[in-house]
Structures are given as structure tokens and as C-alpha cells.
């Protein structure tokens, strides 16, 4: 059996706005294996959500357009399927947990009714059975008084409860791939931890998760592998231990230094200097070069290709091997 559940190859997504045309995602490639939790991390605007929405073919068009690439899911290219086939996959085989639960739940329908509809849309199931299954999922995600909550409207529930309901709805069809796009940003820290635990526990053993976040702490807690994006491109990919102990791209190093606990000089928050450029003004060559302490002439001339470091660890930087060995020296000295 093919171990790869999803493989994105050379995905480029453009948006056409009043200001002009830009690449929101450029030549992005990565894969997710069965049962794997893969983190997609990077600063705001780097293209994480656009990548996720492309998988489900949810890019609004216009203004968006998937310009090139392929998204192979269980041996089929999702970008070539007709809309009817895509709808069948959405929710059933691939489900998404959005950042804002209220955006995903219908405000005018009771929770129970919404859940029953999801179940009935994807399988021939009697309403009574669908109601019973929905209620049991509310219990699984630890909603108290599940029977009564089935009759509630979303606005009658707290943010944490809405989030749990969305997770129940995303998981109850037992999807092969769960895409969680910043699923806990709107929640307070204690609930965040519970929600992650829940997603991990509730998923089927073989189901995979693409977890999108800009929080390296969450990546450390949850993921097996990490994809780091910067300004529309993937800049590094590796196992969690590779990324945390042997980062090879200057941007990844900067991200790690911005976590106080992991900083070499503990207590000092060392953020990456400068700002993420607007997509209309990404620099030539390496998109990170303007902010990179190691940039040299070649970085502005061509896009650095990926350098393979160790098994499944690669970084798009001309001096990736020097950066990695430098980090090891620092790690050995501390
Ligand atoms: N519907 C849209 N119309 C125009 N531009 C868009 C649209 N959606 C996204 N973009 C642009 O595409 C780029 C990538 O956006 P995306 O939402 O993928 O960022 P992100 O990495 O998810 O950021 P965040 O961490 O803030 O959620 C950004 O420049 C964004 O402004
Ligand atoms: Mg986003």
C-alpha cells in the first residue's frame, strides 16, 4: 500500500486583486503519510490556509486560481476531479476544522439538526440513527448534557463548546485526513490543550492530520513532521527532532529563537528582525534574504534549491549544511 495519503506537488496559487496579481502559494510540495501528524508552520500570510483550502478545492475563484501543480489523495489528483466528486471527498475522506467555529456552523440551525445533516449527506442513514450517533459524538467530545445541547443554536454555546462541536462534526465521519487550521487560536490556553488532546485521541488510528499553526510549541507537542513556510514557499521540511534540534534554514532558526523556552540565551526573546514583505514585494531569489543575517549575492539571483540533509530533512538555503552544523556546535556547548 502507498504510504503517502496525500502528496502536493509544485502547487502554485495566485490571487488577482485591484493591486495586481500575486502568488499566495508558490511551487509548494510536501506529503502526508497515513497516520502521520504533519505541522504546517509559518508567519501570518505565508500561505498556510491557502494551501489547506486548495486541498479541499475551496479557494474562492475569482479572485483565486490554482495555477499549477497536483494534489494526489489516495492516488487521485483532487485538482482534476469534477465538483461532485470533490463534494463526496469533503467531510467524508478529508475534513477541516476551521479557526472560527462560528464560520463553519450555521447560525440558524440547531446543533443536532446540523450534525444529522452531515451524516445523512454522506451515507444512507435514518434520521433517528443519525441523531443517536450525533449525540454520542457530543458526549465523546465531553459536552455536558449532550441530549439537551442537540437542541441548542450555536450562539447559545460558549466558544469552547462550539469548537468541540466542530471537532465532533469533523471527526464523526471518520475521515482519512483531518485538516486543522489554527483550531485553537480563539480559545484560552487551558482549553487549547484540551482541544489538542481531544483531536489526537478521537482520530482513527490510521487517520492523518495536517495541523496548521504559527505556534512552534504546538508543533512540538503534537506533530511527527514539520513543513516550514515563508512568504509563499516551503523553506524547510523535517521530523520534529530535526527541526527543533538541527534547523537548517535561517528562518526556521529564527522561529525557534522566538520561543523563549528554547532560546539559547534563555529568557531573551529573539525575534526575527524586519517584517514579512507584502506578496507584491517579495524579493528576487530567496524570499527571506532581506531578513537573513547570512544572505550573500547569490541569494538575490536565484531561488535556492532544496539541499537534502539527512533522510526526509531538507532546506531551501545555499548554506543549509553550514547552518545545521553551526546549530549543532551551539547545542553541544550548552
Ligand atoms: N480571498 C483572498 N483574496 C485575496 N488575497 C487572499 C485571499 N485569501 C488569502 N489571500 C492572500 O494570500 C496570502 C496567503 O494567505 P493565507 O491565508 O494562506 O495566510 P496564512 O499563512 O494562513 O496566514 P495566517 O497565519 O494569518 O492565517 C496572503 O497574502 C493573503 O492576504
Ligand atoms: Mg491562515
Task: Describe the structure concisely for a colleague.
The protein is an alpha/beta fold and 334 residues long. It contains 13 helices and twelve strands. The chain starts with a strand and ends with a helix.
Give the helices and strands, then pairings.
Elements: E1 4-17, E2 20-33, E3 37-41, H1 48-55, E4 64-73, E5 76-77, H2 83-89, E6 94-97, H3 101-104, H4 111-122, H5 127-140, H6 146-149, H7 159-171, E7 177-181, H8 189-202, E8 208-213, H9 216-222, E9 225-230, E10 233-239, H10 240-245, H11 250-257, H12 297-301, E11 307-310, E12 313-315, H13 320-333
Parallel strand pairs: 3-8, 3-9, 6-7, 7-8
Antiparallel strand pairs: 1-2, 1-4, 4-5, 9-10, 10-12, 11-12
Helix pairs in contact: 4-5, 5-7, 7-8
Adenosine-5'-triphosphate binds at residues 15, 17, 24, 42, 44-50, 60, 63-64, 214, 279.
Helix/strand structural class: alpha/beta
Helix count, DSSP H or I runs of 4 or more residues: 13
Care to count the β-strands?
12
Sheet with the most strands: spatial strand order = 6-7-8-3-9-10-12-11
Question: What would you say this structure looks like, in words?
Answer:
- With 334 residues, the protein is α/β, with parallel strands linked by helices.
- The chain contains 13 helices and twelve strands.
- It has a domain at 238-334.
- Helices cover 35% and strands 24% of the residues.
- It has an eight-stranded mixed β-sheet, sandwiched between helices. Strands 2-1-4-5 form a four-stranded antiparallel β-sheet, with helices on one face.
- Strand 7, helix 8 (189-202) and strand 8 (208-213) form a beta-alpha-beta unit.
- Helix 4 (111-122) crosses helix 5 (127-140), helix 5 (127-140) packs across helix 7 and helix 7 runs parallel beside helix 8 (189-202).
- The longest helix is centred in the middle third of the chain and has 14 residues, at 127-140.
- The termini are far apart.
- Magnesium ion is lined by residues 48-49, 181.
